[in-house]
Design goal:
The chain has 260 residues and is of the alpha/beta class. It is built from eight helices and nine strands. The strands form three sheets. The chain has a five-stranded parallel beta sheet. It has a two-stranded parallel sheet with strand order 1-2. Strand 8, helix 8 and strand 9 form a beta-alpha-beta unit. Helix 1 crosses helix 2 and helix 5 packs across helix 6.
Length: 260
């Protein structure tokens, strides 16, 4: 403790490194506690005299193939809400345009979030791209992927941090295949240097970006029929998943869809 007064680590690393000593630390801070199973946190809680548990109950809870319920396992934040005094952090720091947080603010946070004022910009905000000709065939929407890729090509050469999210792995791969080999290599480089992310909906959690491109993908098929098989959005925690997705962008969110 004298040489290293501050430790930054996961609960697992803490358990493997330090002896099980009561109040080994004066203070323990648990961030993203909604993602931390309670069972994983017990050892760390034993080692701290005081604790601060930080997290968002509207973000994803930890998933487990062997969890007791479809809603996932019990997380530290959920447990702390019953036993510890709480303080809501009302200031939303990420989105520069109020429209980017408006949906989540209304439907998940009861209009309690306060967005810092910023200078209006024509390139900031939410942009709806309706791809009327898009059709969902073989679990992908190639027309919609082509439309998104046109903008992605421009952004790959820009300085802004970008994010691309599709509502399925198949649709994400469809977007990737629309890029040339050189563009795919550039995208991979940007992902490695953390100036871009390229993910299916179910893998989005802590990422953030300046410009976010979203492909809904689902649409009518060749017979003009629309299926309600919506992948992750029809599974447990779909509301939290949507909230996570719609709060990633700092400046602009471009939503591509082929239905109204």
């Amino acid at each position: 403790r004298v040489i290293f007064p501050v430790w930054l680590c996961t609960p697992t690393t803490l358990a493997k490194t330090l002896p099980m000593q009561v109040a080994h630390f004066d203070l323990g801070i648990f961030d993203e506690a909604s993602q931390l199973p309670l069972s994983h946190a017990v050892g760390a809680l034993q080692r701290v005299q005081k604790c601060v548990v930080a997290g968002d109950p509207q973000q994803m809870r930890p998933q487990s193939y062997f969890g007791q319920s479809a809603e996932g396992v019990v997380d530290l934040l959920h447990q702390a809400a019953f036993y510890l005094p709480s303080q809501h952090l009302r200031y939303h720091y990420r989105s520069e345009d109020p429209s980017l947080i408006a949906f989540s603010n209304q439907h998940f946070y009861q209009h309690a979030l306060i967005v810092w004022p910023s200078k209006p910009a024509a390139t900031n905000g939410i942009f709806d791209h309706y791809i009327e000709a898009g059709r969902y065939i073989h679990q992908q929407n190639q027309t919609e992927a082509k439309a998104l890729t046109q903008q992605l090509r421009k952004l790959l050469h820009a300085e802004q941090k970008i994010g691309v999210v599709a509502f399925s792995e198949t649709q994400l791969n469809c977007i990737y295949q629309e890029l040339s080999s050189a563009e795919q290599a550039l995208l991979e480089t940007r992902i490695q240097d953390r100036s871009a992310f390229f993910l299916p909906l179910e893998k989005v959690q802590g990422e953030e970006c300046e410009i976010l491109l979203i492909s809904f993908g689902f649409a009518k098929n060749e017979a003009e029929q629309f299926s309600l098989k919506l992948g992750p959005m029809a599974q447990a925690q779909s509301g939290r998943r949507l909230n996570v997705l719609l709060t990633r962008a700092q400046k602009a969110l471009h939503f591509y869809s082929s239905i109204r």
